Amino acid sequence: MSVDIEEQVEIPRAKTEPVARELPIDEPKKGFGNPKLRRFLLIGGVVALALVVGLLFYYHDRETTDDAQVDGHITPVASKIYGRVAEVLVLDNQPVKKGQVVVKIDPRDYQAALDQAKGQLALAEADAQSAGVDVPRTRENVASGTSSADAQLLGAQAALASAP
Fold first, then answer.
1. Cα 6–8–13 angle (5° rounding)?
2. Structural domain boundaries enclosing 126
3. pLDDT one-digit tens code per residue, 81-127
4. 3-state secondary structure string across the chain
5. How many domains does the chain have?
6. pTM for the whole structure
7. Has residue 17 been placed in a domain?
C-alpha cells in the first residue's frame, strides 16, 4: 500500500511589469454580415409576415365606412306569395343559387283560407241541391198561381158579359 502526500510549496514570484501585448480580437462584422442582426431581421420578418397575414384574414370580408354608407350590390328577393316567415334557411352573406329555397312561409294563414274556401264551396253545393229541390215546388206554385189567375180572369170576363 502506498500513500501519496502532497506538499504545497510557495514559490516567491518576482515582480515583473506587465507586458503589453496585442491580442488579436475579432471585430464584430458590420451590416448584414453580423449574425445577431441577421437573426433579429429574420425573426422580425417572420413576425411582420404573420401580422400581415392575420390582418388580411381579419379584414378580408369586412366593410368599413366613414360616412355611414356602404356601397354594395343589392339583389332584390321576392316571393310568389306573401306571408309571415316561419324559418330562414340561409345565413347572412351566404351565396345562394337561382331557385334555392331561402325562407319558409308560415302556412297557417293559407290553411285557414283553404278551410274557409272549402266551407263556402260546401255551402254553395248545398244551396244548389236545395235549389234543385225547390224548382219543382216553385214550378207547381207558379202553375197554381197562374191557373188561379186564369180562373179569376175568366170569372171577371163572365161577370162583364152578363152585366147589363
1. 150
2. 84-90+101-164
3. 888 889 999 998 888 888 888 899 998 988 999 999 999 999 998 88
4. CCCCCCCCCCCCCCCCCCCCCCCCCCCCCCHHHCHHHHHHHHHHHHHHHHHHHHHHHHHCCCCCCCCCCCCCCCCCCCCCCCCCEEEECCCCCCCCCCCCCCEEECCHHHHHHHHHHHHHHHHHHHHHHHHHHHHHHHHHHHHHHHHHHHHHHHHHHHHHHHCC
5. 1
6. 0.34
7. no
Position 38 in a domain: no
Place of cell 343589392: 74
In-domain check, residue 44? no
Residue 54: per-residue pLDDT: 93
CA 80 to each of CA 57, 77, 83, 105, 135: distance values in angstroms, whole numbers, following the listed order: 39, 10, 10, 11, 44
Q: How far apart are CA 47 and CA 53, in angstroms?
A: 10
Question: How far is it, in rounded angstroms, from Cα 139 to Cα 48?
Answer: 102
The rounded distance, in Å, linking the Cα atoms of 68 and 60 is 19
- Torsion (CA) 147, 148, 150, 153 in degrees, nearest 10: 180
Q: Which of 8-17, 36-45, 76-85, 101-110 has the lowest mean pLDDT?
A: 8-17
